[in-house]
Write a structure and sequence with these properties.
By secondary structure, the chain is an alpha+beta fold. Helix content is 34%, strand content 30%. The longest helix is centred in the last third of the chain and has 18 residues. The N and C termini lie far apart (40 Å).
């Protein structure tokens, strides 16, 4: 049976964790449910629909998620453009050893690669997590969109005949 962040991969572990959460005193239950619902582990590599690279930053984000605290996030996108914004961290996903943060922003739901987060400062402000948010469903939507984009990318390569044999391997 899997436990910890990989528990979502095992129905037995998920059931056991739900029972444990229900057994907690009511004052702790909401935070425990938020923490339990805040991580999706997706071990499949991109392009494959089918060791834990956690950083200190993942721990900071997990705490903010569980406490439903907003975060002042400084982020650098793939084009190396930086931005700072206040976000509502909803959950984390581990995709093939790369961590992603799903969050609410002023522009709607966004997904951030954790390794591109320059700084994350938990604020004293709190937020209400959307009641209809199912993290695993939201993550599936992210994966589906990335896979659609990947599937549309094609390339035509022209090489000298003498080099073609290297591409066939």
């Amino acid at each position: 049976m899997l436990v910890g962040p990989s528990a979502g991969a095992s129905p037995q572990a998920t059931s056991a964790l739900r029972k444990l959460v229900r057994a907690l005193p009511a004052t702790f239950r909401a935070d425990a449910e938020a923490a339990a619902a805040a991580i999706v582990v997706d071990p499949a590599a991109w392009g494959d629909r089918g060791e834990d690279g956690r950083t200190e930053l993942v721990g900071v984000l997990q705490t903010a998620i569980a406490q439903r605290s907003t975060v002042q996030l400084t982020y650098v996108d793939r084009r190396r453009r930086g931005s700072t914004s206040t976000i509502e961290p909803w959950g984390l996903a581990d995709k093939d050893g790369v961590w992603y943060l799903l969050a609410g922003t002023e522009h709607g739901r966004r997904t951030f690669r954790v390794d591109r987060i320059v700084d994350a400062e938990v604020t004293p402000d709190h937020f209400e997590r959307p009641t209809d948010l199912e993290l695993s469903t939201a993550w599936e939507e992210v994966v589906d969109e990335v896979e659609r984009r990947r599937a549309r990318t094609t390339a035509t390569v022209t090489v000298a005949g003498r080099l073609a044999r290297f591409l066939e391997q």
